[in-house]
Amino acid sequence: MRDGGGTGRRRRARISASRLTLTIVLANLIGLVILLLGSFGLTQYRDGLVEAKLEGVRAQAQIIADVLAQVAIDESSCQPVEATDLERVGAEVPLCSLALVQGDVQEVFNRVWDSFEGRVRIYNAPQTFDDPPVKDAAALLIEDVVLREDRVVAETLPPLEKTQTDALWNSAMGEFGRMLSNLFSSGYRTDAAQRSIEDELNNALTSSPFAEDRGAASVRINEEGELVASVSVPIRRVQAIYGVVTAEIGGIDDLVEEARLAILPFFGLASAAAILTSLLLTAAIAQPIRQLAFAADKVREGITVASRTRIPDFSNRRDEIGELSTALRSMTQAIYARMEAIESFAADVAHELKNPLTSIRSATETLAIVKTPEAQEKLMSVIKKDVGRMDRLITDISNASRLDAELARQSREAVDLRKLVADIVDMYAAIAKDSEAKVMLEADASPVYMLGQPSALSQVIRNLIDNACSFSPPDGTVRVRLESAVEHADTLRLIVDDDGPGIPADATEAIFKRFYTKRPKSTDFGANSGLGLAIARQIVESHGGVIWAENRFADPQNGESGSIGARFIVELPAP
User: Residue 106: enclosing H or E segment and its boundaries?
Assistant: First the structure.
């Protein structure tokens, strides 16, 4: 069931879209979308376009106002002003309302203004002095004309079969443009809809005649719902106002929509480039990561079926993907090495346990047929020794199997190595027997600190002392010496010497292997499990140190002078 589930997950991973790919694509496109939306707003472009339109319309309105001020003023139509109006304005002399000659206004437009374009309206001056003076612009309207510049436009018509398609396309694009206009210009159009022609006329009537830009300008919505740029300029002679010229021009919405639609092809090209770069990033990042993920899944499945899977090698890449590949390959190699070590350890345990079991079985089978008490007692002695040997083996094997987990769980702390060694040596001195070698400490009283696990380090010291005592004669001495980092740069050195027969030249490394029990013939068989030195090396290496063994010679400068004992050296990193 487990294998089938893993295969199903792998198949689904192959056919499904890569989430990392989608993330890369979206990350590249989101900036373009924001840029597109900002471009559709076109606030600066629209404001600049409106300003240009207003400048053109203002110039046109000022020219028309100046001409009408010269030829269309009705000076004889001055009408008396009501007394109440005189009181309202505070005048002391009679005033009269001024007006334009409608026929002259029409004649001016019929003869002169074919070079202008846009809508032009001519209003009489208000005949009252109310506040505001203009309440209904239609009541003052004299002329309302739409001027167009004379020009001939030559346009090549498209083929008939394309006309319908083009019409549909233009209609769709026009609708899209209107949607964009409503979406991005709603606030601007709302403000424009609140402005009226009456407000513009009143602002024009109260404007200063000495201003550089005469009259009043505004952006309004006309009767057809179109956004227009409008300018109203008073028709003045000296300081008297005879009427107002209002010129307006539209087409703002169309130009803005064209500018928006013109951005779309560039957005399409930018989107294509973003997608292409996303695919390149996918090939460079997402795909290698997926390959590593699939390989890691295969490693998991391979462990259950006792097979090996190769992790893709991207170590030649000088980036995080290469580092990840190297880390996964190292981790996989460590896993396989640990599996091999476990398999080897299990085989060694089975072999070591089988030997005493075989001896016990033989002794019990023989015990049933022997008759003499001496033979039975001898066989019982063999059985007891083998049982004791199995007990030691099981205890040491249990300790060795728990060692990795304990080293991984326990936290490191500052350890006074000199005090730790002194306490252990004192313990051996307190329980020493006359038939055992003496244990002595050679170290000064100053503390020697390092980061480590006290229980694990004490096990290393005890294992080395136990090993040295087992090889030393009863009158021998086991010397423990501690050298600080001052003597050996950045390392601490622990040295354990014994007075035993020494180590065979070809066994200085083999003695650290599990279940290595080659000892002198005088040593009791089965008295040791052969795991003590292996456990010591494992603990030392987990602390970042090294351990090795060598022989001591009568003449340290002469390797042929004869061995006087063994020496075990442990080097640990200083804090």
Answer: helix 102-111
Structure token pair of residue 137: 């612009």
> Could you tell me if 334 and 457 lie in one domain?
no
Which of 390, 409, 428 delimits the end of a domain? 409
Last residue of a domain, one of 409, 435, 462: 409
DSSP helix/strand/coil, 150: coil
Closest CA to 45 of 249, 262, 192, 256: 256
- 36 near 183, Cβ under 8 Å? no
Token pair in block for residue 225? 């719902």
Averaged in consecutive runs of 10 residues, what is the pLDDT profile of the chain (575 residues)? 43 51 76 66 67 86 87 68 49 56 80 71 81 85 76 60 59 60 64 87 86 86 86 86 89 73 74 80 80 81 65 81 84 79 71 76 82 83 81 73 66 86 89 84 81 87 89 88 72 89 85 72 54 84 89 77 85 84
**Residue 397 to residue 529: CA distance in whole angstroms:** 9
Whether 19 is in a domain gets the answer no
Q: What is the DSSP letter of 322?
A: H
The CATH number of the domain holding residue 511 is 3.30.565.10
Quick check: helix, strand or coil at residue 77?
A: strand
Residues 297 and 2 sit within 8 Å (Cβ to Cβ) = no
Q: How distant, in Å, are the alpha carbons of 165, 353, 358, 476, 557 from that of 467?
A: 98, 21, 27, 13, 26
Is residue 398 within 8 A of residue 405, CB to CB? The reply is no
* Dihedral over alpha carbons 437, 442, 443, 444 (to 10 degrees): 120
* Residue 453 resides in a domain: yes
Helix, strand, coil % (nearest 5) of the chain?
55, 15, 25
Q: Say if residue 558 is in the same domain as residue 501.
A: yes
Domain count, the chain: 3
Residues 340, 457: one domain? no
Residues 514 and 431 placed together within one structural domain of the fold? yes
Question: Among candidates 219, 163, 204, which has minimal Cα distance to 49?
Answer: 219
State whether residue 161 is helix, strand or coil.
helix
Locate tokens 């002078």: which residue?
561
Side-chain-side CA neighbours of 286 within 13 Å: the count stands at 18
Q: Which amino acid is at 332?
A: T
- 460 and 540 in a single domain? The answer is yes
Residues 368 and 415 in one domain: no
Name the maximum alpha-carbon separation found in the chain.
166
| 483: three-class secondary structure by DSSP | strand
What's the CA gap between 562 and 553, in Å, rounded?
6
User: Which has the closest alpha carbon to 511: 522, 502, 503?
Assistant: 503
Long-range contacts (CB closer than 8 Å, 24 or more residues apart) made by 426-435: 428/465, 428/469, 434/474, 435/474
401 and 434 fall within a common domain: no
Assess whether 427 and 467 both reside in one domain: yes
DSSP E strands in 55-114: the ranges are 73-80, 96-100
CATH number at residue 218: 3.30.450.20
Q: Tell me the DSSP string of 425-476.
A: HHHHHHH--TTS-EEEEE--SS--EEEE-HHHHHHHHHHHHHHHHHHS-TT-
- Tokens 């769980």 correspond to what residue? 409
Domain residue limits at 117:
42-148+164-250
